[in-house]
Design a protein that fits this description.
106 residues; mainly alpha
C-alpha cells in the first residue's frame, strides 16, 4: 500500500469515527428526560464490552472446556462480590488446572 492510499483510508476512518461521536453530541442540546432512553444509554457501554469480551474469553485457550470452566469460575466469584484480582487469579488457576487434567485424560 502506498502512502497516498494509506492517508486517504486514515482520513476516512478518522472522519467516520469522529462523526459517530460528534453527531449525537451536537444533536442533543438539552438533557434527555425520557426514562427508557436514559436507561438504554446507561447500559450501552456494558453491553458492548460484554459482546467483545465474552467470545474472546471462550477462545483464549486451546481448550474450550478449560476456557468455559475459567469463565464460569470468574462469573461465580464476580457475582459473589469478590475483587478483580481474586476473580482473575482464580479464573487463570482454574484454566491451568483443567488444561492439566484434560492433558492427562486424553
Amino acid at each position: 500500500m502506498d502512502n497516498k492510499s494509506f492517508f486517504i483510508y486514515l482520513l476516512i476512518m478518522a472522519g467516520s469515527t469522529y462523526l459517530i461521536r460528534a453527531i449525537p453530541f451536537g444533536a442533543m442540546r438539552k438533557k434527555i428526560e425520557n426514562k427508557f432512553i436514559r436507561s438504554f444509554l446507561y447500559y450501552i457501554p456494558y453491553t458492548v464490552l460484554s459482546a467483545m469480551t465474552f467470545p474472546a474469553a471462550l477462545y483464549a485457550t486451546g481448550n474450550i472446556y478449560a476456557a468455559a470452566s475459567g469463565l464460569f469460575v470468574a462469573i461465580l466469584l464476580a457475582i459473589k462480590g469478590k475483587g478483580l484480582t481474586i476473580v482473575a487469579v482464580a479464573a487463570c488457576v482454574t484454566v491451568f488446572v483443567v488444561e492439566i487434567i484434560m492433558t492427562y485424560l486424553i
